[in-house]
Design brief:
Layout: H1 7-14, H2 34-52, H3 58-72, H4 76-90, H5 94-102, H6 108-130, H7 136-154, H8 173-190, H9 195-220, H10 225-243
Length: 245
């Protein structure tokens, strides 16, 4: 088979990991595996926390875990946070917002947004460690990547062209369904006794993603790849916060 099934493409897109496998002919097939990528990243974070817990403070461990995630994802989604913050903060028309978001330079809104987001993540994970609730990270990382698939399916694309047009608009119900089934299996086999908490986490992440879609439709008539990255990062930060309560 000359064409890959999308798994390798998903890992090469969302992480820095060097994985074996053929590239998928159609990028959209990688959406089937976004939740799997989230599971792997979540497990790696969990392992880091468990291994370092006997030796380091929760704050330092959480800082290292967040640093690892930033490296593992090459700050791909954080770049989207910065672009969206700069665009929505500095643009007054649709055209200007999109122009700013396309600019590779980072402005004050973007820098401040990334800094605050990372602070919240470090603090929330530190709280999870103190409460021995770090296993929640795996389901949280999985939900945040499911939300990418979900939002890509239900959202219009704000640009006439762009790198994310292969995801937004081409994502189908089958991609959402497969990703959701993976999420359900993860919750059923590993979080069976905490399903209410999982629903609360899912609900908080879903509300976050729908709010970003609402803002996108109102300001620029849809979403962009940067807004998908913001969805992942912001929903993750909020779910980590909710889990730490």
């Amino acid at each position: 088979m000359k064409d890959g099934i999308g798994l390798a493409t998903a890992f090469r897109t969302l992480t820095t990991f060097k994985v074996w496998g053929r590239e998928s002919k159609s990028f959209v097939t990688s959406l089937y595996w976004f939740v799997v990528v989230g599971i792997v990243l979540g497990v790696l974070n969990y392992v880091i926390i468990i291994l370092l817990s006997p030796y380091l403070s929760p704050l330092l461990i959480s800082s290292l875990a967040v640093t690892f995630t930033v490296w593992a994802t090459r700050a791909f989604h954080l770049d989207g946070v910065a672009d969206m913050a700069d665009g929505f903060g500095g643009g007054w028309t649709k055209e200007r917002v999109l122009e700013i978001m396309r600019d590779s330079h980072i402005g004050a809104f973007g820098a401040i947004s990334i800094a605050l987001l990372l602070i919240v993540k470090v603090a929330a994970i530190s709280s999870l460690i103190e409460k021995s609730n770090q296993f929640s990270i795996i389901i949280i990382f999985s939900i945040s990547r499911f939300l990418l698939v979900f939002l890509a399916h239900i959202s219009p694309y704000a640009r006439k062209e762009g790198t994310a047009h292969h995801i937004v608009g081409e994502a189908k119900v089958r991609h959402v369904a497969v990703a959701f089934i993976q999420l359900l299996l993860l919750a059923f086999f590993f979080y069976r006794g905490e399903l209410l908490k999982v629903l609360l986490l899912f609900g908080s992440g879903l509300i976050t993603s729908l709010y970003i879609l609402y803002r996108g439709k109102k300001r620029i008539g849809g979403i962009t790849g940067d807004m998908l990255g913001t969805t992942l990062e912001l929903s993750e930060a909020i779910m980590l916060t909710v889990a730490s309560l």
